[in-house]
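To whoever is on call:

I kicked off a structure prediction for a single chain this morning and the downstream step that reads the tokens threw a length-mismatch warning. I double-checked the sequence; it's 429 residues and nothing unusual in it as far as I can see. Pasting both halves so you can look.
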Amino acid sequence: MLDILDTGQAGAKEKLATILNRSSFDSQEQIDVVQDIWDNIQNRGIEAVLEYTARFDGAKLEQLEVSQTEIKAAYKQVDQDFLAAIQKSIENVRKFHQQQLREDWMDIKDDGVILGQKFEPLARVGIYVPGGRAAYPSSVVMNGVPAKVAGVDEIVMVSPPAKDGSLNPHTLVAAAEVGVDTIYKIGGAQAIAALSLDLAEIKKVDKIVGPGNIYVTLAKKLAYGYVDIDMLAGPSEILVLADQDANPKYIAADLLSQAEHDPMASAVLVTTSKDLAKEVKLELEEQLTNLSRAKIAKEALKNYGALLVAKDMEEAISLTNQFAPEHLEVKVESPFSILGKLKNAGAIFLGEYAAEPIGDYVAGPNHVLPTGGSAKFYSPLNLDDFVKKSSIIHYSKEGLDKVKDQALKIAEVEGLDAHANSIRVRIED
């Protein structure tokens, strides 16, 4: 199933390159499909949205908005244990993101110059939640709660319906508990277009957040400029950095927790111990036999899984930083001792008991994370994604006198006479 490769081998470098390049968004066929959907909705509006919902989701709907009656019915379909679990998740995610709140600030100088910054929440945000046959209430929590904490006025959720026109009751209950204002039964690229194009029936949002399939991701790429987006997220991935004392059973379980997502998901072990790699391989084979999604996980491991053995921890850390994984688990004797050396990762899980799914559901940090190496320049979804900033500039005459010569010189070099004149008329007045 998986070969154990030394990092110095050519095969290891080729495998790493294959994994890192797996989520490119350059399929012209898929781009053309998304562009056609976008153009059709731009020209025909909600009629086209309804047609795509019938074609792709098999749901023939007359009303896209979820009613309060449907939400009340959803509460009757979920058990109390789920309700308690989602409420705990919301509480923890809220507490974590409240730590990210920022206050307006002013720097008042002696010469009357005042500089500062003010923070304002976005007015209207759209969150995309995958759906159809599956339920992802955790996505509702991770996208909706930080928007609420930031003070967003209106949260609009879109999610693809089942063939009978319903949304999963667990997703609806999560949305109600988070405080989502409006929910539409729309999925795919058509949902992104509907939130971006200011249709008569669906008001345009300021920003769209949330993960989806390749068509959703390409539509978000197309939407950027019409609205803001969080990031272009690719298939899920995990890298486990481990030494010889790590628990192979835990590592295999965590690798499989990501491999079961999607055939394009990546699960990689980087270790300094060949013996550990052998034990993890045996554990993977054994644990796979008990998984309901074993076929998906097996395909992901075959195509984008790897068991890599580094010559020492320094090389292992260097390889980890090069990979820049979405989820990074650190299973070494003293994980905090190397934390400062880990430069690129979406979320870092330290120690034997920090299982990645805990981060997905209840720990508190956001599970919407950069993928495909983009952790080198992107951050997890956070409060700043739902806030815009304005600079504040106030100058007194004394303050202007101090900087006028420098400002005039720069305007002169740039050949912008009106810029210079704007300053000069105040000096001469």
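Update from on-call: the warning came from a stale cache, not from the record. Cleared it. Sanity check on the structure: The chain is about 45% helix and 15% strand.
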